[in-house]
Structures are given as structure tokens and as C-alpha cells.
Write a structure and sequence with these properties.
Blueprint lengths: L2 H12 L13 E2 L8 E2 L10 E2 L7 E2 L34 E3 L7 E3 H11 L14 H7 L19 H4 L26 E3 L7 E3 L18
Antiparallel strand pairs: 1-2, 3-4, 5-6, 7-8
């Protein structure tokens, strides 16, 4: 982005209202052609919107988000494969499934937390498939971590591997890129106060300068 492009994006965002909370400053627009719904990244889960954290970082509103195409479940077990609590009978935004075994069902928030903790060892909690399971989860908006699993020792890892160091905003405004951070100012990186697995530049967020904490959309 050039400086002029950043200023234009900020001006345009200031005029757009989030269709979820109805407040101004919505920087994310649904990627579906002809759809003009805009929203804040923190509001996305409440509006059942999906952001794909790979490639072009595309975002979709509730109407145009990708849908899973799974066959009827082989078993009649209606429990989450992760937390063992009840899940919905049908696939929805909150209830997801494995495209490999077609049997595992889990809550979106459960599979998201597993993805952040499992890191590079992320796989279906029931059949242990990694492909096409991982690609399906990415497409459905699950954020993956490139770190080793949290249950493995990290004593041999350096500080750069222990702390998330990139901006995960759908549109990063920093000229230095997503991985450029500063100790103070607009490019200060705020980590999620709940999981610390996602971060956002202060200027790329819709939060004011006085806000001390930030929570990612998955938390």
C-alpha cells in the first residue's frame, strides 16, 4: 500500500457502518461480487461472518460465507468430538465436521482452540486426517498456527517463536507489511488478550488509542 492508498482506505472505512453493530469505521467488506455488507473484525463471529486466514485473506458475510458439503453422519452420536458436549444435528456456522471421515462433529470455537494449540500437528480429532481436513478448516475460516503443539516442550525455541509477531487484520495498512511492528505508535502490535495467538496493529484495528486490550474474532 502507498501512503495515499492507506489514507483513502481510512477515509472510506470511516464512512461505512458495520451491519452487525451498526457503528462506523467498518474496514472489512464481503468479497462476494455485488454484496456491500461491511463489518468490524471483532464483530465477525457475532454476525456469523467468515475470514479466510490464508492467501488473499478474503472475508464473507453470513449470507455468502463458504458452506460445508458433508454427507449424512454415519453414526447417531450428536456430541462434539473435542468437548463431548451436544452439537446441532445439522452443519451450520457453529457446528462443523471433518470432510475426510464425514463423522466427526465439533463446535467452531472448539476446533478453533484446538487449531491454535495443535499448531503444525493440527488434524481431525477423530480420524487424525490432516489433508483435506486442514484445507477445509482454512476455507471455513479457522485460523491455524505455524508453531509446534503447545503440549510439546518449547525450551529449545527462541523468543521469536514464542510470541506471535504479525498483524492478522483482514486489511493490514502497514507499509512495512504484516510482520512490521513497533514498540509504540500506530504499528504497535496488540496480541489477543485471551489466546495470544493472533495480533493486530493499533491502526489496523477499530479500537481507540485508550483501549489497553484486544480480543481476536475467534475468542
Amino acid at each position: 500500500f502507498l501512503v495515499g492508498d492507506i489514507r483513502r482506505i481510512i477515509r472510506e472505512a470511516a464512512k461505512k457502518s458495520c451491519f452487525i453493530c451498526c457503528k462506523m469505521g467498518a474496514t472489512i467488506t464481503c468479497c462476494q461480487t455485488g454484496c456491500d455488507r461491511t463489518f468490524h473484525l471483532p464483530c465477525a463471529p457475532h454476525g456469523q461472518c467468515v475470514t479466510q486466514y490464508f492467501g488473499a485473506y478474503r472475508s464473507f458475510c453470513w449470507e455468502h460465507r463458504p458452506q460445508q458439503a458433508l454427507r449424512p453422519r454415519p453414526s447417531q452420536d450428536n456430541t462434539c468430538s473435542i468437548c463431548l458436549d451436544t452439537v446441532e444435528d445439522n452443519i451450520s456456522y457453529k457446528t462443523m465436521g471433518c470432510p475426510a471421515c464425514q463423522d466427526a462433529r465439533f463446535h467452531r470455537h472448539c476446533i478453533q482452540r484446538l487449531a491454535l494449540h495443535a499448531g503444525i500437528d493440527f488434524r481431525c480429532p477423530r480420524c487424525l486426517n490432516q489433508e483435506p481436513f486442514t484445507m477445509e478448516m482454512l476455507t471455513m475460516g479457522i485460523r491455524l498456527s505455524k508453531r509446534p503443539p503447545s503440549w510439546q516442550t518449547d525450551r529449545e525455541l527462541g523468543p521469536s517463536h514464542q510470541r506471535h509477531g504479525r498483524c492478522d487484520a483482514a486489511t493490514c495498512l502497514c507499509l512495512g507489511g504484516r510482520e512490521h511492528t513497533e514498540a509504540h505508535g500506530p504499528w504497535q502490535l496488540r496480541l489477543c488478550s485471551s489466546c495470544a495467538a493472533e495480533g493486530i496493529h493499533r491502526l489496523c484495528s477499530s479500537l481507540g488509542n485508550s483501549t489497553c486490550s484486544w480480543e481476536c474474532s475467534t475468542c
